[in-house]
């Protein structure tokens, strides 16, 4: 009877040892898989960040181009307004100078 109990205890210890070994292997495999998943997620996140940065830069360039075009258009309007008003302003200045010369002999 004791021999049978000893055989059962030995078998139990063998099964426990095997189960621990398999559990350790599963944990190692899970850690490796988790590392690979984390590395893949980090790479995907980096790719998404780079794409987002590219989109932001493209949008900023487009906005800068629109702003520059708006500034050119406004400058052209101001130049045209100045061109239209210059003769009248020159005439007023000349008239004022002539009037001052007449008043101050």
Protein model, in words:
It is rod-shaped, with a radius of gyration of 44 Å. By secondary structure, the protein is mainly α. It contains one helix and no strands.
Topology:
Layout: H1 2-103
Any low-confidence stretches, pLDDT <50, length ≥5? Answer: none
Assembly classification: single chain
Shape: rod-shaped
Terminus-to-terminus distance: 146 Å
Largest sheet: none
Alpha-beta classification: mainly alpha
The percent of residues in helical segments reads over 70%
- How large is the radius of gyration? 44 Å
Question: What is the percentage of strand-forming residues?
Answer: under 5%
- Helices and strands, in order, run as H
- Give the tally of β-strands: 0
Number of helices: 1
On the 0 to 100 scale, the average pLDDT is 93
Key phrases:
105 residues, 0% strand, single chain, mainly alpha, 1 helix
Give a brief outline of the structure.
The chain is an all-alpha fold and 105 residues long. It contains 1 helix and no strands.
């Amino acid at each position: 009877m004791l021999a049978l109990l000893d055989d059962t205890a030995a078998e139990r210890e063998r099964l426990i040892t095997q189960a621990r070994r398999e559990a350790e292997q599963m944990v190692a495999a899970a850690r490796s898989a988790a590392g690979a998943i984390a590395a893949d997620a980090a790479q995907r996140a980096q790719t998404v960040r780079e794409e987002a940065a590219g989109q932001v830069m493209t949008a900023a360039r487009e906005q800068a181009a629109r702003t520059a075009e708006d500034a050119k258009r406004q400058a052209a309007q101001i130049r045209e307004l100045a061109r239209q008003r210059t003769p009248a302003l020159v005439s007023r200045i000349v008239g004022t100078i002539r009037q001052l010369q007449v008043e101050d002999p």
